[in-house]
Amino acid sequence: MTELVVLFLVALVPMAPTEAVLIGCGVLAASGDLPLHAVIAVAALGCTLSDLVNFSIGRGLGMRALTRFSRRPRPRAVVAWTASQLATRGESILVAVRFVPGGGIVGALLAGSLRWPVRRFAPIAVVGAALWSAYTAVLGYFGGQLFSNPLVATLVSLAVAALVGVPIGMAVRAAQRRVADAAPAA
Predict the structure, then answer these.
(1) 109-154: per-residue pLDDT in tens?
(2) CA 124 to CA 87: how far, in whole Å?
(3) How far apart are CA 180 and CA 79, in angstroms?
(4) What one-character-per-residue DSSP string does 151-186 give?
(5) What is the pTM for the complete model shown?
């Protein structure tokens, strides 16, 4: 059960290596050391609480919460692109952005900065965190089922996650780059 406490704490802290820890816990679930449903639930809870904290920071600081990301024209265009996507396809974008590294943080900050009502944001944060947690834990679980060595299972599962996540991240970055290239230089 110590593993679940560590997983919760890592999921709660923004920019912590949640994916690696969650995959490792999925591998442990495959060996019977942890219940898979508990791994998913603990990770989803930690990620949801982290999203709510980031949302509150965005809400309290407004767009100033994103100034670190938007000092130069290209990052500023990325923030503008994400904000426009939230305005037109908010809920689906917040769920999808959860699968891009760092996307959950930026999405939550932006939703708060754009003054979304918490009653609109919270259910989406729960859904996004639950889907991402289930996907990531199941990757580790299947890796643990396929390979008896936990280290190999974890590494293979991380590689599969990268194979899925990298093209998604590349597609998002390409869309953002098109917007950034079209942005006037400051």
Answers:
(1) 889 988 889 999 999 999 999 999 999 999 889 888 887 887 887 7
(2) 14
(3) 10
(4) HHHHHHHHHHHHHHHHHHHHHHHHHHHHHHHHSPP-
(5) 0.80
